[in-house]
Design a protein that fits this description.
Elements: E1 22-23, H1 32-42, E2 47-51, E3 60-64, H2 68-78, E4 86-91, E5 95-98, E6 109-112, E7 122-129, E8 132-136, E9 145-149, E10 153-158, E11 160-165, E12 170-175, E13 178-184, E14 187-188, E15 197-205, E16 218-224, E17 237-241, E18 252-254, E19 258-259, H3 262-271, E20 277-281
Parallel strand pairs: 11-20, 14-18, 17-19
Antiparallel strand pairs: 1-10, 2-3, 4-7, 4-10, 5-6, 7-8, 8-9, 11-12, 12-13, 15-16, 15-20, 16-17
Helix pairs in contact: 1-2
């Protein structure tokens, strides 16, 4: 998605329908099980390189590759997202340090806040440890993760999450387990497919021309096209946005973005906080 002109953004917890509650990372002493997990994490050295801030020209960020069994144990120990809620953290300063593990002595990279579009930097939490958050990163490759200090971010909760079914051309918004929106969409073509995986909303932009190809609003996601190196001279960020061709909704026609009717994107813009999870499935 080529970036529309800046506009405005919705921080987690803002707005009448954000369903966000401020929380904080625990500071209690680590339990024996947590200490074991920390030891396991300290020994991990397999990481995925990723571009800071979503730009391929910026310094590289590193992401922790945690085996699924360890990830599951970690989530269970720390009780993250066991009640249908999702944790979002927002930068409180101008820089967020990203670490390979919570035992690393120095940061592997830094992400600046606000981001290049002027939007406060947000992250979707995967798991937590005392004084640390394990988060998805808005960088390439898709699915990159890292650890950030609780002291550099402010946490909130939301019950919202989006599920995109590419084959069915449907976008569904859930509030915990309840479907609150179910609408048709257009997705990417065979040559420029909409990538699958778990992402989150990183920014909300308002194009200068609400009657243009992006409609009145465009959400940027933490994911990128897997077939394009750039789009209109910018990073190939995947987005959810409106359209000036509503007659094409329901088809595979985009460069990877998810298109919805303008009334739908307007409703989403008023409903969803940044950081909302987005699951893109087959």
């Amino acid at each position: 998605m080529s970036k529309p002109a800046v506009i405005g953004c919705r921080r987690p917890g803002f707005g009448p329908a954000a369903s966000a509650v401020s929380i904080s990372a625990g500071h209690a002493p680590a339990s024996p099980r947590m200490k074991i997990l920390l030891a396991v994490l300290a020994g991990m050295v397999v990481f995925t390189g990723c571009g800071g801030g979503g730009s391929k020209t910026q310094s590289q960020a590193s992401a922790t590759a945690i085996p699924d069994p360890v990830r599951s144990q970690l989530a269970a120990v720390t009780s993250v997202n066991t009640d249908g809620m999702n944790t979002i953290v927002t930068a409180t300063g101008g820089v967020v340090d990203v670490y390979k593990t919570p035992t690393a002595k120095t940061a592997a990279s830094q992400l600046r806040s606000p981001n290049p579009e002027g939007v406060p930097r947000v992250f979707l939490v995967v798991a937590k440890l005392p004084n640390w958050w394990h988060v998805l990163l808005p960088v390439e490759p898709n699915g990159s993760t890292g650890w950030v200090k609780a002291s550099q971010v402010k946490a909130s909760l939301t019950g919202y999450h989006i599920v995109v079914a590419r084959k069915d051309h449907r976008l569904r918004v859930y509030d915990k387990t309840t479907v609150v929106l179910d609408e048709p969409i257009s997705v990417g073509t065979t040559d420029t497919p909409t990538p699958g995986g778990r992402f989150y909303l990183t920014e909300l932009l308002q194009p200068r021309n609400p009657a243009g190809p992006y409609g009145p609003y465009a959400f940027g996601l933490s994911g990128f096209s897997t077939t394009l190196d750039s789009f209109d001279g910018q990073d190939p960020v995947i987005g959810i946005h409106g359209t000036n061709q509503p007659n094409l909704i329901g088809q595979d026609i985009s460069h990877g973005c998810i298109r919805v009717r303008n009334d739908v994107i307007t409703r989403l813009a008023k409903m969803l906080p940044l950081g909302t999870p987005v699951e893109i499935a087959a």
